[in-house]
Design goal:
The protein has 364 residues and is an alpha/beta fold. It has 2 domains: 185 residues, Glycogen Phosphorylase B (Rossmann fold), CATH 3.40.50; 150 residues, Rossmann fold. A 6-stranded parallel sheet has the order 2-1-3-4-5-6, with helices on both faces. A 6-stranded parallel sheet has the order 9-8-7-10-11-12, with helices on both faces. Strand 7, helix 9 and strand 8 form a beta-alpha-beta unit. Helix 2 crosses helix 4, helix 4 crosses helix 5 and helix 6 runs antiparallel to helix 7. The radius of gyration is 21 Å and the shape is globular. The chain starts with a strand and ends in a 9-residue tail after the last helix.
Length: 364
């Protein structure tokens, strides 16, 4: 296959947030000949902090991603390497998408981590900001050789709205252990994971702390709660149950119940896939499990809007360990077969062929 380049913000470490986990999975599955990390490029050109000239650029919903020196360096690298195609990971790097086109690369694609404009609309963001995001989505979709999505749902929404030239589904994927450890009986120790500065996660975390956990605690007096993630919003920083920037997620998952009370957002939840891979029980809203092939009752327990529904489901986990173990095993098999790094390789390779002009339209 002809050379493909992947442009990401960061590949980070193994214990990183959702965007980095997505980038790591794409890099592993596509095995690109060239990976460009824009954060590293900015460091190499001495622009870790954004200068005034870049910050004062024309209106952009993602102004923090702009760096003139880094963009110039990326253009130069692409002109020298001349890859057959470039996939830019996430909408926030749309300026690097344009940089690839400016470098003379004919086949440039964008990987959409989320349906960004829809997510901001659901989060009641300012209408002007939502329209600015939608404008970027529209412009990139009209120009891209290929737009990839984390789920068929996101793909269908974007196709109906923007009519991109070609699309593909590249599901979120996580590392899945071949030999998982023994399952322990569930305890009433609740966990929420996610980027704690992202509006849908902030809403979910606050609701969990202020409404849901008190209902659980009223029924189960020894229940505990941990909320962990990167860059907590000011409304979360002073909360005693919040752990900021945990170094690893594995120890947090161990022995806990992942609770995902999301009401807004797009894409699919890597936090749920990580829990499935660790054979940890999951309680989620339908919105939280959106975009995944997981079925309520089979792979996780689905909560409603009322805080009391979570208390009931935690009690169900405790009172019926055999059913809980069956769900956890089914969830592990699902993530192993459909959302592991290994299972992502075939669709990622087909998408790379589409990007370079040697493949057909892919829907999954």
């Amino acid at each position: 296959m002809r050379e493909v380049a992947l442009i990401v913000r960061d590949l980070g470490s193994r214990t990183a947030g959702g965007a980095i986990l997505r980038n790591q999975a794409l890099a592993a599955a596509m095995a690109p000949a060239l990976v460009i990390e824009t954060n590293a490029v900015r460091e190499s050109v001495g622009c870790v902090s954004q200068c005034r000239e870049c910050a004062d650029a024309p209106a952009d919903p993602y102004p923090w991603s702009r760096c003139r020196r880094a963009l110039a360096a990326v253009r130069l690298t692409l002109r020298r390497r001349r890859p057959a195609g470039v996939l830019v990971s996430e909408l926030q790097l749309h300026r690097y998408f344009r940089a690839a086109l400016a470098a003379g690369i004919a086949n440039v694609g964008l990987d959409m981590h989320n349906s960004e404009a829809d997510a901001f609309t659901e989060s009641a963001a300012a209408p002007d900001y939502v329209e600015a995001v939608r404008a970027v989505e529209r412009q990139v979709s009209a120009t891209a050789r290929l737009v990839t999505f984390v789920s068929g749902l996101d793909e269908r929404r974007a196709t109906a709205r923007y009519s991109p030239r070609a699309t593909a589904v590249l599901p979120n994927a996580v590392r899945v252990p071949r030999s998982p450890g023994p399952m322990r009986r569930a305890a009433p120790d609740l966990l929420f994971l996610g980027h704690l500065g992202y509006p849908p996660n902030v809403d979910a975390a606050l609701r969990l702390i202020e409404e849901i956990f008190p209902a659980v605690r009223a029924d189960i007096g020894h229940a505990t709660l941990t909320v962990a993630g990167r860059r907590p919003h000011p409304s979360l920083r002073a909360r005693g149950c919040v752990q900021a920037d945990p170094p690893a997620t594995g120890p947090l998952l161990d022995g806990r119940v992942l609770v995902v009370p999301l009401r807004t957002g797009g894409g699919s939840r890597l936090k749920i896939l990580e829990a499935f891979a660790a054979r940890v029980p999951v309680i989620s809203t339908a919105k939280g499990a959106e975009g995944l092939a997981a079925r309520p009752g089979t792979h996780y327990l689905e909560a409603g809007d009322a805080p009391g529904s979570y208390a009931r489901l935690v009690r169900e986990l405790l009172d019926d360990p055999e059913a809980d173990f069956r769900r956890r095993e089914a969830a592990y098999e699902l993530v192993r077969d459909r959302y592991s790094w290994e299972s992502l390789r075939a669709p990622a390779q087909r998408a790379a062929e589409m990007l370079t002009g040697s493949g057909e339209r892919l829907h999954q």
